[in-house]
């Protein structure tokens, strides 16, 4: 079990530390953790946010546990040297095209959602976000106009092949859950979305047992707040999935609770909280490590087939929350390390 640990910037090392404690506590045979530098800290040490040595570790590992990257003091750098390129580069380099972002309300947390408890209590959804295409990876540029003004541009595109492979992930996920798939696009305006929608419909013929619906992304943002319990699996593109998953996190209660798995074909995956480096609370023992701890559960499930251990971790987090172990993000007083302790005790 060779696992790369890339803690990164800001709260990344703080939340990763607690997640690694939980992983080690399981005492799994053959566990081999290898640390690597990513993000702003890697740029400072090596002049690049994703150094070759880190990439080599990523290639040699069975799975990657990723904290977070991002450092506003790097905002002046050319884009290819910015911290965020570490996570984007790993996703692209390793072909991690399928990002799974589950969101469900833990028992006892209904009152901590930004939504009314009876609305929040029904949330149990999975966002399947395409991660290798869209406006993220199209041609981009900034040009100076003849009048001295500037124009920035980013090319949004999806090929039918790219849509097909993520659609299959969405349909299969729905088969394993409640059999409902909602494809989110903006086909009323974007040609990219027309290809997306046509292709999802084409793929749906292979999944007659899944109920497919389509929704425009603006309406989806609204429905996610109005009636999130109606969603089972959402499949969507890179940008829409990024935005909707942060929104879903507040429906659940905190961005500090949402884990994610980024999968290639096969079992290799990168596991990370959906949140970023949170510079506003970094170094203050204020970050909630639960999203990263839950990412370890996803790592054990999706890369190693260790369902029992995954469930043990999820149960320990759920029990801690039921017992009122809340960080500042949930209106409580528990610090990062104390939340880690609380989860470990219950494990
Ligand atoms: P963010 O997710 O880092 O923070 C948004 C807000 O949520 C902040 O107020 C933060 O304090 C809070 N928050 C986030 N995680 C938390 C946690 N575990 N516990 C408690 N509160 C938490 O988003 P941002 O502020 O927009 O971005 C900061 C940096 O992180 C940027 O450089 C951005 O590019 C980067 N980022 C990286 C990733 C990643 O590494 N995958 C993801 C998102 C953002
Ligand atoms: C995420 C982040 C990243 C994204 C950034 C940091 C590149 O917001 O993992 O959700 O947009 O995918
Ligand atoms: Mn995001």
UniProtKB/TrEMBL annotation:
* Chain sites annotated for binding Mg(2+): 218, 242, 246
Kindly list the places in or outside the cell where this protein is found, as annotated in its UniProt entry.
Answer: Cytoplasm
Q: Which reaction does it catalyse?
A: (2R,3S)-3-isopropylmalate + NAD(+) = 4-methyl-2-oxopentanoate + CO2 + NADH
Q: Where is this site: Important for catalysis?
A: 136, 186
Q: Which SMART domains match?
A: Iso_dh
Q: What is its main location?
A: cytoplasm
Cofactor binding mode and count: Binds 1 Mg(2+) or Mn(2+) ion per subunit.
Q: Which GO terms describe its molecular function?
A: 3-isopropylmalate dehydrogenase activity
Which sites bind NAD(+)? 276-288
Name the Pfam families on file: Iso_dh
What Enzyme Commission number does this protein have? 1.1.1.85
What are the entry keywords?
Amino-acid biosynthesis, Branched-chain amino acid biosynthesis, Cytoplasm, Leucine biosynthesis, Magnesium, Manganese, Metal-binding, NAD, Oxidoreductase
**Alphabetical list of InterPro entries matching this protein:** IsoCit/isopropylmalate_DH_CS, IsoPropMal-DH-like_dom, Isopropylmalate_DH
Pathway per the UniProt entry: Amino-acid biosynthesis; L-leucine biosynthesis; L-leucine from 3-methyl-2-oxobutanoate: step 3/4
Task: Report the sequence similarity comment from the record.
Answer: Belongs to the isocitrate and isopropylmalate dehydrogenases family. LeuB type 1 subfamily.
The free-text function statement in the UniProt record for this protein reads: Catalyzes the oxidation of 3-carboxy-2-hydroxy-4-methylpentanoate (3-isopropylmalate) to 3-carboxy-4-methyl-2-oxopentanoate. The product decarboxylates to 4-methyl-2 oxopentanoate.
Subunit structure as annotated in this protein's UniProt entry: Homodimer.
Instruction: State the HAMAP family in the record.
Output: LeuB_type1 (MF_01033)
Name under which the protein is recorded: 3-isopropylmalate dehydrogenase
Which organism encodes this protein? Novosphingobium bradum
């Amino acid at each position: 079990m060779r696992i790369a640990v890339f803690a990164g910037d800001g709260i990344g090392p703080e939340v990763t530390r607690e997640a690694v404690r939980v992983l080690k506590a399981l005492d799994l045979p053959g566990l081999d953790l290898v640390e690597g530098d990513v993000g702003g800290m890697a740029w400072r040490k090596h002049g690049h946010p994703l150094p070759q040595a880190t990439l080599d570790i990523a290639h040699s590992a069975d799975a990657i546990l990723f904290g977070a990257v991002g450092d506003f003091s790097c905002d002046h750098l050319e884009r290819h040297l910015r911290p965020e390129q570490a996570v984007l580069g790993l996703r692209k380099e390793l072909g991690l095209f399928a990002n799974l972002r589950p969101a469900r309300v833990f028992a006892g947390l209904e009152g901590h959602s930004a939504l009314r408890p009876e609305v929040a209590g029904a949330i149990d959804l999975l966002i399947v976000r395409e991660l290798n295409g869209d406006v993220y990876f199209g041609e981009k540029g900034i040009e100076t106009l003849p009048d001295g003004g500037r124009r920035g541009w980013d090319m949004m595109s999806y090929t039918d092949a790219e849509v097909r492979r993520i659609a299959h992930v969405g349909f299969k996920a729905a088969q394993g859950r409640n059999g409902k798939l909602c494809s989110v696009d903006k086909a009323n305006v974007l040609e990219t979305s027309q290809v997306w929608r046509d292709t999802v419909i084409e793929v749906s013929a292979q999944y007659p047992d899944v109920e497919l619906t389509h929704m425009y992304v603006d309406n989806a943002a609204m429905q996610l707040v109005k009636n999130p319990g109606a969603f089972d699996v959402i499949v969507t593109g890179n940008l829409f999935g990024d935005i909707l998953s942060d929104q879903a996190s507040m429906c659940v209660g905190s961005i500090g609770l949402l884990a994610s798995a980024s999968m290639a074909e096969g079992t290799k995956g990168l596991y990370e909280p959906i949140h970023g480096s949170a510079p506003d609370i970094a170094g203050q023992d204020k970050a909630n490590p639960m999203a990263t701890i839950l990412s370890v559960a996803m790592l054990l499930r999706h890369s190693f087939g260790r369902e029992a251990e995954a469930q043990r971790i999820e149960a320990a987090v759920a029990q801690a929350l039921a017992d009122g172990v809340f960080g500042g993000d949930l209106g409580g007083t528990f610090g990062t390390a104390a939340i880690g302790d609380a989860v470990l005790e219950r494990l």
